[in-house]
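Here is one chain, start to finish.
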Amino acid sequence: MSQPNKKLRENGDGKQIGTHDGTFHCDEALACHLLKRLPRYQDHRVVRTRKPDLLADCDIVVDVGGQYDPATHRYDHHQRSFNETMSSLVPDKPWVTKLSSAGLVYLHFGQEIIANMLGEKADKKLCNVVYDKVYQNLIEEIDAIDNGVSQFDGSPRYLVTTNLSSRVGRLNPAWNEEDQDTNERFSKAMEMVGEEFEDRVRYYSQAWWPGRKLVQDALEARHAVDPSGEVILMEQVCPWKEHLFHLEKDMKVDPSIKYVLYPDQGGNWRVQCVPVATQSFESRLALPEEWRGVRDDELSKLSGIQGCVFVHASGFIGGNKTREGALLMAQRALQMCR
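Its structure:
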């Protein structure tokens, strides 16, 4: 393979980001988008080719070329010798999924990209938290799909065909379309993945992270809500599950929280069971079986609690017209479900 032009690499005058032509995938579309978020690459043209001489003139190359060499800005992952993960390259990170070009670019440039997006007011802790959350909840999925890493052992119980990688794949021309040009469609793919990336950064920095303080305050006040210390009350609903698990560990909460109370958008109150794990459908302590699937007056009569609205058929959540009623539902469930 032709050697990269050292002068172009060092001064950035190559003005080109190289990737492969033909059928495109989510990882190189995102890798190119991420690079163009950096001031030094924002004006670079994306060159899609497999010709070594053309790639050699590129300032940076992703997902093609058979070489991983950060010193020369070559970020391919297809070579047989490549088995790097986030954890192998950054030992304090826990993720062991083989990296794609998206993961490689994110590993080397992601911290800078996140800091630029969050601005000067963002402290280092927030930047690090958002960096980790975006990798865990977006980039790792793309790495795994591109490298053929299964999410679980055995056959899936159902198919998921709406993930970002699938949606990018469907932008490629169908086999029987007359126009097989992929360059314009690749630009659309970069735009699609860029919007997803920006949405994740915005969510974790502006919505998810601020919720941590609300969950912490609720945990500190839990014994005032119920003497058991197993119920927390939040005056405003926010993304609470991950924060709860982390804070329970940090604050050494024992016994663990079983129910979370919060107002819904209709002015009623919810009592939601805490799952056994963040992504689990199993509850630590589900609402009583005899309440499940019952609604309104019938549920109030059955439970002996006024203002009941519903209990879900699986028992993971219920509702009441008042905060006091929701708390009574949680307290009664603690007594009945031990």
